[in-house]
Each structure stands twice: as C-alpha cells, then as structure tokens.
Request: fold
Amino acid sequence: MKLKLSDLGVNYGNFEAARDINLNIEANEFFTLLGPSGSGKSTIMRAITGFNTISQGQILLDNHEISQLPPEKRAIGMVFQNYALFPTMSVYDNIAYGLKLQKMSTQAIAARVEAVARMVQLSSDNLKKGISELSGGQQQRVAIARSLAPNPSLLLLDEPLSNLDARLRVELRKELKRLQRELKMTIIYVTHDQSEALTLSDHIAVIHDGRVEQIGTPKAIYQTPKTEFVANFIGEINLLSSAIVSHLDTSSWQEDAHYYIRPEHLSFEAGEIAINGTVLTKEYYGVNYSYTIAIPGGTMDILADTQFEYQLDDMVTLFFNRAHVLEFVGGTHG
Ligand SMILES: Nc1ncnc2c1ncn2[C@@H]1O[C@H](COP(=O)(O)OP(=O)(O)OP(=O)(O)O)[C@@H](O)[C@H]1O
Reply:
C-alpha cells in the first residue's frame, strides 16, 4: 500500500511537534524517518497509526483518508523499540494476540503463528516459552512476528533494533530487508542511526525540529545534502573553518559561506588544494586508518588506506579537490 502525508501537523498542547510534513511513500518501499532524538519521528509514526490526533493535514492510505479512523481500523502493523510484548503470555499467545481479536479459528491461528515464526526464524520450541525466557534478539523477533501475523500491508517499525547489541543489529537488519522483499510490504522505519538508514532504505526523510529537512535516496542524502544540518547529521564531515579557508587561494569562494569536506575526500597523495599539518590522533580500523590532523586554525579527519602509515606528530600534507567541497550559504546548499 502507498501512503501519503499531506501538510501534516501534530501539536502537544501549544507545542508543534510536527509541521508541514509532506511525504509520498510508494507501495513496497522501505522508507525511513531519520533524525536526532526529539526531532518528531515517533510523533509522525503515532499519527499514522492513530495513537496521536493530528491537528492539521491528511493521511491517505491508498488514496483513502484514514486520519479519522481509530487505530484498530487502520490495519497497520507496528513494532516499538521496547517490544511492548505481553510479559505473562507465552511466545505463541503473543504472536496469536491480534489474530484472536480478529476471531480467526484456532486452527487457522496455529497455522499462521507457525508461518510467521518461521519467517522470523523462531523455532517451535521457542513458541512454547515465556517471554522472559528469550534473549533480547529473540524477543524482538517475537515482536516482529506479532506485527506480521495479521498480514498488514503497511508495517511501521519505530527503532526496533535499538535495544540490541551491534552484531545482532546488523544481523536483524539484513533479515528485515529480506522479509520486506519476500513479503512485498511497505515499511516505514524510524531510526536515529544513520548507517541503519543508509543501508536499509529506498528513500530517507531527514527530520529536524518537527520538519522534513530533505527527502531522497541514501546516496543523494549523503552525496548532495541540501542543508548544513543534513551534511552534519549524515556521515562524518570536516568543516573548513574561516581560519582554514583564509589560508587557501580561494578567489571563487564566498565570505559568508560554510565549507565542508568528507574524510574520504581528503588524500595524503595528490589534489588541487594542499594544507600542511601534523598527526594528532590515529585509529586503526583494519581496512583503513582514521587520522585527525592538526592544521592552522583547526583539525581535519581523514580516512586513509593502510599503506599511509604515520606516527603521532609526523608532519603531513592533506590534499583535496574543490569539486568535493560542499558549500552552504545561510544553512542551505550554495
Ligand atoms: N505526549 C507528549 N506530550 C508533550 N510533548 C511530547 C509528547 N511526546 C513527545 N513530545 C515532545 O515532542 C518532541 C518530539 O518527540 P518524538 O518522540 O516524536 O521525537 P523522536 O524523534 O521520536 O525522538 P526519539 O528518537 O528520542 O524517540 C520532543 O520535543 C518531545 O519532548
């Protein structure tokens, strides 16, 4: 199913937690709301599910206005950060919960619970257990299975992996993507983790202060951020301070602009622009090094191939090309 939010606004009392939200989410798309804590992501999700009343705009699910419907009539699946499982029920009963409400036959429920348990790779042994007997990763699988059981055509996932350790997050992230492809579902995903957003999404909406800052593919958001906020929020980036810029031959550069460059666009080898500096910190990442270089008026982070091995306090020259420099005037792309 496709979802359209048009001029959506949500207030808590006098506080505008979301405003002017316009999103077009296509059927079978993996769409992510990415933004810092408190930016309004959950507020938008709760408006879609019906747990928040909207103060303005429309929510169209396959062209039908749903904002006046109660949550249970919207047929939208939802998984929360804290799982929100029923702790005293068995895994089976948790997954079967929505199906029982739909008055499905016991036999049909059993078949469906087994099917979704298989999808999320929960064994039949696990189905008999109590929720507290499962690991965090298994509990999250139960939460996903429960939301999938009624076969929703739209699934909302609000920070579903944030309670898990790093390795499990990556594993479950791959599984989510596989499930989405297999089940041909529209997924709206909320995260403040940029690597999750970049790896999973077809499109990302960057949310900041209750507004949409930019919508685009992961590549577009990373490579051509429209605002200074997006440039700083997605990926690592170096600000070329005015002190640095004043050292450069910058006749084509504007005085009131802010200039940025990504660490991977700096080189120790060659480039149009050169800055001398000394090695301040060095981190080894297996495939490469990350160095912080002290330069006149500031520091720059650089990602370098392991062939470029320097020691602390070594003198080095950083090179980069003008084409890789991102320019912002008044916060927006120059
Ligand atoms: N029930 C509420 N009443 C009043 N203010 C609220 C309520 N819920 C959220 N807020 C405020 O609205 C803003 C947006 O909150 P929201 O939970 O949507 O952010 P978020 O981007 O989902 O954050 P997080 O990543 O931390 O979950 C915040 O400033 C928050 O304090």
Q: What stands out?
A: Residues 12, 15, 17, 35, 37-43, 192 surround adenosine-5'-triphosphate (CB under 6 Å). The radius of gyration is 24 Å. The mean pLDDT is 91. The longest strand covers residues 273-284.
